[in-house]
Amino acid sequence: MSAINYKHLHYFWVVAKCGGIGRASEQLHLTPQTISGQITLLEESLGTSLFDRVGRRIELNETGRMVFSYADEIFSLGEELEDMLHHRPGDRPLQFSVGVVDSVQKSIAYMLLEPALKLPETLRMVCREGKLSTLLAGLAIQSFDIVIADGPMPANSNVRGYSHLLGECGITFFAAQSLARQVKKGFPQSLDGAPFLLPGEDAAVRPRLLKWFDRERVRPRIAGEFDDGALLKEFGEAGTGVFCMPSVVAAQIKRQYGVVEVGRTTEVMEQFYAISVERRLSHPAVVAISSAARKRSVASH
Predict the structure, then answer these.
(1) Are 189 and 219 in contact (CB under 8 A)?
(2) Among 28, 138, 219, 259, which residue carries the largest CB count within 10 Å?
Protein backbone atom coordinates (compact mmCIF):
# COMPACT_ATOMS: atom_id res chain seq x y z
CA MET A 1 0.00 0.00 0.00
CA SER A 2 1.37 3.42 -0.96
CA ALA A 3 1.66 6.27 1.55
CA ILE A 4 -1.66 7.91 2.37
CA ASN A 5 -2.34 11.17 0.54
CA TYR A 6 -3.69 13.35 3.35
CA LYS A 7 -5.34 15.75 0.91
CA HIS A 8 -7.44 12.86 -0.40
CA LEU A 9 -8.07 11.71 3.18
CA HIS A 10 -9.29 15.20 4.07
CA TYR A 11 -11.79 15.17 1.19
CA PHE A 12 -13.04 11.77 2.38
CA TRP A 13 -13.37 13.10 5.96
CA VAL A 14 -15.41 16.11 4.86
CA VAL A 15 -17.71 13.93 2.70
CA ALA A 16 -18.28 11.54 5.61
CA LYS A 17 -19.02 14.42 8.01
CA CYS A 18 -21.35 16.17 5.56
CA GLY A 19 -23.18 12.99 4.63
CA GLY A 20 -22.64 13.26 0.89
CA ILE A 21 -20.50 14.58 -1.94
CA GLY A 22 -22.94 17.37 -2.83
CA ARG A 23 -22.78 19.05 0.57
CA ALA A 24 -19.03 18.48 0.79
CA SER A 25 -18.51 20.19 -2.58
CA GLU A 26 -20.25 23.31 -1.24
CA GLN A 27 -18.06 23.32 1.87
CA LEU A 28 -14.82 22.66 -0.02
CA HIS A 29 -15.74 24.89 -2.99
CA LEU A 30 -14.91 22.07 -5.41
CA THR A 31 -17.00 20.30 -8.01
CA PRO A 32 -18.58 16.97 -7.05
CA GLN A 33 -16.62 15.33 -9.88
CA THR A 34 -13.32 16.54 -8.42
CA ILE A 35 -14.15 15.25 -4.95
CA SER A 36 -15.41 11.92 -6.30
CA GLY A 37 -12.20 11.49 -8.26
CA GLN A 38 -10.03 12.25 -5.23
CA ILE A 39 -11.90 9.72 -3.10
CA THR A 40 -11.50 7.11 -5.84
CA LEU A 41 -7.75 7.71 -5.76
CA LEU A 42 -7.78 7.30 -1.97
CA GLU A 43 -9.67 4.01 -2.25
CA GLU A 44 -7.21 2.78 -4.88
CA SER A 45 -4.24 3.65 -2.66
CA LEU A 46 -5.86 1.87 0.32
CA GLY A 47 -6.87 -1.11 -1.79
CA THR A 48 -10.45 -1.10 -0.56
CA SER A 49 -13.73 0.77 -0.99
CA LEU A 50 -14.90 3.12 1.75
CA PHE A 51 -18.52 3.73 0.75
CA ASP A 52 -21.48 1.59 -0.28
CA ARG A 53 -24.04 3.01 -2.69
CA VAL A 54 -27.61 2.85 -1.35
CA GLY A 55 -29.95 4.07 -4.07
CA ARG A 56 -28.72 7.54 -4.95
CA ARG A 57 -26.92 7.95 -1.65
CA ILE A 58 -23.56 6.75 -0.42
CA GLU A 59 -22.97 5.36 3.05
CA LEU A 60 -19.78 4.48 4.87
CA ASN A 61 -19.11 0.75 4.91
CA GLU A 62 -17.36 -1.01 7.79
CA THR A 63 -13.88 -0.12 6.51
CA GLY A 64 -15.01 3.43 5.82
CA ARG A 65 -16.22 3.85 9.39
CA MET A 66 -12.87 2.64 10.71
CA VAL A 67 -10.93 4.97 8.38
CA PHE A 68 -13.23 7.86 9.34
CA SER A 69 -12.52 7.34 13.06
CA TYR A 70 -8.79 7.70 12.38
CA ALA A 71 -9.29 10.64 10.01
CA ASP A 72 -11.51 12.37 12.56
CA GLU A 73 -8.76 12.06 15.17
CA ILE A 74 -6.10 13.28 12.72
CA PHE A 75 -7.95 16.37 11.53
CA SER A 76 -9.40 17.21 14.94
CA LEU A 77 -5.85 17.27 16.28
CA GLY A 78 -4.87 19.43 13.31
CA GLU A 79 -7.61 21.92 14.17
CA GLU A 80 -6.44 21.98 17.79
CA LEU A 81 -2.85 22.61 16.64
CA GLU A 82 -3.95 25.45 14.40
CA ASP A 83 -5.99 26.95 17.23
CA MET A 84 -3.00 26.69 19.59
CA LEU A 85 -0.68 28.40 17.12
CA HIS A 86 -3.08 31.32 16.68
CA HIS A 87 -3.02 32.11 20.39
CA ARG A 88 -0.20 33.71 22.34
CA PRO A 89 1.26 31.34 24.96
CA GLY A 90 -0.47 33.19 27.80
CA ASP A 91 -3.82 33.00 26.03
CA ARG A 92 -3.78 29.31 25.20
CA PRO A 93 -6.54 27.40 26.98
CA LEU A 94 -5.74 24.38 29.10
CA GLN A 95 -6.51 21.30 27.00
CA PHE A 96 -8.50 18.54 28.70
CA SER A 97 -9.64 15.47 26.79
CA VAL A 98 -11.94 13.00 28.49
CA GLY A 99 -13.63 9.82 27.35
CA VAL A 100 -16.99 8.95 28.90
CA VAL A 101 -18.18 5.35 28.81
CA ASP A 102 -21.63 5.32 27.22
CA SER A 103 -23.16 3.39 30.14
CA VAL A 104 -22.43 6.30 32.51
CA GLN A 105 -25.48 8.54 33.00
CA LYS A 106 -24.93 11.92 31.32
CA SER A 107 -26.06 13.89 34.38
CA ILE A 108 -23.54 12.03 36.53
CA ALA A 109 -20.77 12.57 33.99
CA TYR A 110 -21.51 16.30 34.13
CA MET A 111 -21.59 16.28 37.93
CA LEU A 112 -18.18 14.58 38.03
CA LEU A 113 -16.60 16.82 35.38
CA GLU A 114 -18.08 20.13 36.54
CA PRO A 115 -15.24 20.96 39.01
CA ALA A 116 -12.83 21.18 36.07
CA LEU A 117 -14.89 24.05 34.67
CA LYS A 118 -14.29 26.08 37.82
CA LEU A 119 -10.51 26.18 37.42
CA PRO A 120 -8.99 29.68 37.20
CA GLU A 121 -7.38 28.74 33.88
CA THR A 122 -9.36 28.95 30.64
CA LEU A 123 -10.25 25.35 29.85
CA ARG A 124 -10.96 23.68 26.54
CA MET A 125 -12.70 20.40 27.31
CA VAL A 126 -13.12 17.74 24.64
CA CYS A 127 -15.54 14.92 25.54
CA ARG A 128 -15.86 11.71 23.54
CA GLU A 129 -18.38 8.97 24.32
CA GLY A 130 -17.96 5.30 23.49
CA LYS A 131 -17.44 1.73 24.64
CA LEU A 132 -14.88 1.17 27.40
CA SER A 133 -12.57 -0.89 25.18
CA THR A 134 -12.49 1.84 22.51
CA LEU A 135 -11.85 4.61 25.03
CA LEU A 136 -9.09 2.65 26.76
CA ALA A 137 -7.37 2.22 23.41
CA GLY A 138 -7.50 6.00 23.04
CA LEU A 139 -6.16 6.41 26.56
CA ALA A 140 -3.19 4.19 25.70
CA ILE A 141 -2.13 6.52 22.87
CA GLN A 142 -2.81 9.58 25.06
CA SER A 143 -5.87 10.75 23.14
CA PHE A 144 -7.52 11.16 26.56
CA ASP A 145 -6.32 12.50 29.88
CA ILE A 146 -8.86 10.31 31.69
CA VAL A 147 -11.76 7.97 31.01
CA ILE A 148 -14.89 8.25 33.18
CA ALA A 149 -16.32 4.76 33.71
CA ASP A 150 -18.87 2.93 35.85
CA GLY A 151 -16.33 0.27 36.79
CA PRO A 152 -12.60 -0.08 37.43
CA MET A 153 -9.95 -1.00 34.88
CA PRO A 154 -10.74 -4.51 33.56
CA ALA A 155 -8.29 -7.10 34.87
CA ASN A 156 -7.81 -8.56 31.37
CA SER A 157 -7.15 -5.23 29.66
CA ASN A 158 -4.02 -4.90 27.52
CA VAL A 159 -3.84 -1.21 28.42
CA ARG A 160 -1.79 -0.22 31.45
CA GLY A 161 -3.82 2.15 33.56
CA TYR A 162 -4.96 3.02 37.05
CA SER A 163 -8.47 3.26 38.48
CA HIS A 164 -9.32 6.17 40.78
CA LEU A 165 -12.66 5.80 42.59
CA LEU A 166 -14.59 9.08 42.36
CA GLY A 167 -17.64 7.97 44.30
CA GLU A 168 -20.44 5.48 44.71
CA CYS A 169 -24.11 5.47 45.59
CA GLY A 170 -27.07 3.15 45.87
CA ILE A 171 -29.80 2.79 43.27
CA THR A 172 -33.39 4.02 43.19
CA PHE A 173 -36.28 2.35 41.36
CA PHE A 174 -38.84 4.41 39.42
CA ALA A 175 -42.06 3.84 37.50
CA ALA A 176 -44.75 5.85 35.77
CA GLN A 177 -47.60 6.70 38.13
CA SER A 178 -50.00 4.02 36.83
CA LEU A 179 -47.40 1.27 37.25
CA ALA A 180 -46.03 2.67 40.51
CA ARG A 181 -49.41 2.17 42.19
CA GLN A 182 -49.07 -1.56 41.53
CA VAL A 183 -45.46 -2.06 42.68
CA LYS A 184 -44.73 0.56 45.34
CA LYS A 185 -46.37 -1.33 48.21
CA GLY A 186 -44.28 -4.24 49.49
CA PHE A 187 -41.08 -3.26 47.67
CA PRO A 188 -38.90 -5.09 46.66
CA GLN A 189 -41.05 -8.25 46.64
CA SER A 190 -43.64 -6.26 44.67
CA LEU A 191 -41.21 -6.31 41.72
CA ASP A 192 -41.75 -10.07 41.31
CA GLY A 193 -43.45 -10.50 37.93
CA ALA A 194 -43.51 -6.75 37.29
CA PRO A 195 -42.25 -5.44 33.93
CA PHE A 196 -38.66 -4.24 34.29
CA LEU A 197 -36.30 -2.29 32.02
CA LEU A 198 -32.80 -3.70 32.35
CA PRO A 199 -29.55 -1.82 31.65
CA GLY A 200 -27.50 -3.22 28.74
CA GLU A 201 -24.78 -5.82 29.10
CA ASP A 202 -22.03 -3.17 29.18
CA ALA A 203 -23.44 -1.53 32.33
CA ALA A 204 -21.29 -2.50 35.32
CA VAL A 205 -24.31 -2.38 37.65
CA ARG A 206 -26.25 -5.02 35.70
CA PRO A 207 -24.70 -8.19 37.23
CA ARG A 208 -24.93 -6.69 40.73
CA LEU A 209 -28.60 -5.90 40.13
CA LEU A 210 -29.38 -9.43 38.89
CA LYS A 211 -27.62 -10.96 41.92
CA TRP A 212 -29.69 -8.72 44.20
CA PHE A 213 -32.88 -9.95 42.52
CA ASP A 214 -31.74 -13.52 43.23
CA ARG A 215 -30.96 -12.76 46.89
CA GLU A 216 -34.38 -11.14 47.33
CA ARG A 217 -36.02 -14.02 45.43
CA VAL A 218 -37.55 -11.53 43.06
CA ARG A 219 -37.97 -12.29 39.38
CA PRO A 220 -39.21 -9.29 37.41
CA ARG A 221 -40.42 -9.79 33.86
CA ILE A 222 -37.76 -8.23 31.64
CA ALA A 223 -39.72 -5.98 29.30
CA GLY A 224 -36.64 -4.54 27.59
CA GLU A 225 -32.86 -4.16 27.68
CA PHE A 226 -31.23 -0.85 26.80
CA ASP A 227 -27.62 0.17 26.17
CA ASP A 228 -28.73 3.80 26.01
CA GLY A 229 -29.78 5.09 29.43
CA ALA A 230 -31.67 8.03 27.91
CA LEU A 231 -33.78 5.67 25.80
CA LEU A 232 -34.41 3.45 28.82
CA LYS A 233 -35.77 6.44 30.76
CA GLU A 234 -38.05 7.41 27.86
CA PHE A 235 -39.58 3.92 27.93
CA GLY A 236 -39.84 4.13 31.71
CA GLU A 237 -41.64 7.46 31.46
CA ALA A 238 -44.11 5.86 29.03
CA GLY A 239 -44.97 3.19 31.62
CA THR A 240 -43.32 0.26 29.85
CA GLY A 241 -41.62 -0.94 33.00
CA VAL A 242 -39.90 -0.21 36.30
CA PHE A 243 -36.32 1.03 35.95
CA CYS A 244 -33.45 1.97 38.24
CA MET A 245 -30.94 4.81 38.25
CA PRO A 246 -28.21 5.98 40.64
CA SER A 247 -29.78 7.50 43.75
CA VAL A 248 -27.63 10.60 43.43
CA VAL A 249 -29.80 11.75 40.50
CA ALA A 250 -33.16 10.55 41.90
CA ALA A 251 -34.62 14.04 42.39
CA GLN A 252 -33.64 15.04 38.86
CA ILE A 253 -35.15 11.87 37.35
CA LYS A 254 -38.49 12.45 39.11
CA ARG A 255 -38.58 16.09 38.08
CA GLN A 256 -37.53 15.54 34.47
CA TYR A 257 -39.58 12.43 33.65
CA GLY A 258 -42.54 12.78 35.99
CA VAL A 259 -42.03 9.28 37.39
CA VAL A 260 -42.59 8.05 40.95
CA GLU A 261 -39.97 6.59 43.27
CA VAL A 262 -40.89 2.98 44.01
CA GLY A 263 -38.03 2.15 46.39
CA ARG A 264 -34.28 2.24 46.81
CA THR A 265 -31.41 0.09 48.06
CA THR A 266 -27.76 0.45 49.01
CA GLU A 267 -27.16 -3.28 48.59
CA VAL A 268 -26.53 -2.55 44.91
CA MET A 269 -23.98 0.20 44.45
CA GLU A 270 -23.20 2.26 41.36
CA GLN A 271 -19.52 3.19 41.21
CA PHE A 272 -17.78 5.89 39.21
CA TYR A 273 -14.11 5.86 38.30
CA ALA A 274 -11.54 8.02 36.58
CA ILE A 275 -9.14 5.76 34.67
CA SER A 276 -5.77 7.23 33.80
CA VAL A 277 -2.33 6.11 32.67
CA GLU A 278 -0.91 7.88 35.72
CA ARG A 279 -0.82 6.37 39.18
CA ARG A 280 -0.51 9.89 40.62
CA LEU A 281 -2.87 12.37 38.97
CA SER A 282 -1.20 15.53 37.68
CA HIS A 283 -3.44 17.25 35.11
CA PRO A 284 -5.05 20.26 36.87
CA ALA A 285 -8.53 19.37 35.61
CA VAL A 286 -8.20 15.74 36.74
CA VAL A 287 -6.87 16.81 40.14
CA ALA A 288 -9.85 19.18 40.54
CA ILE A 289 -12.29 16.39 39.65
CA SER A 290 -10.68 13.92 42.05
CA SER A 291 -10.45 16.46 44.91
CA ALA A 292 -14.10 17.50 44.52
CA ALA A 293 -15.18 13.84 44.49
CA ARG A 294 -13.38 13.18 47.78
CA LYS A 295 -14.96 16.21 49.44
CA ARG A 296 -18.42 15.48 48.08
CA SER A 297 -18.62 11.77 48.69
CA VAL A 298 -21.30 10.55 46.34
CA ALA A 299 -22.06 7.81 48.84
CA SER A 300 -23.61 10.43 51.12
CA HIS A 301 -26.52 10.54 48.70
Answers:
(1) no
(2) 259
Strand, coil or helix: 193: coil
Residue 246 DSSP SS3: strand
Candidates 137, 145, 163; CA nearest to 94 is 145
**298: pLDDT strictly greater than 70:** no
User: Strand, coil or helix: what is 20?
Assistant: coil
Q: Is 0.70 surpassed by the pTM of this model?
A: no
Which residues have CB under 8 Å from 260's CB, separation 6+? 174, 175, 176, 177, 180, 184, 254
Angle between helices 284-295 and 106-117 (to 10 degrees): 110
Q: What is the spatial distance between Cα 4 and Cα 73, in angstroms, rounded to a whole number? A: 15
- Is residue 203 within 8 Å of residue 292, measured between CB atoms? no
Which run of H or E residues covers position 167?
strand 162-175
3-state secondary structure of 247: helix
Measure the CA–CA gap between 68 and 12, rounded to whole angstroms: 8
Whether 299 shows a pLDDT value over 60: the answer reads no
Residue 299, burial from CB neighbour count under 10 angstroms (0-12, 13-18, 19+): middle
Q: Which residue has the higher pLDDT, 131 or 295?
A: 131
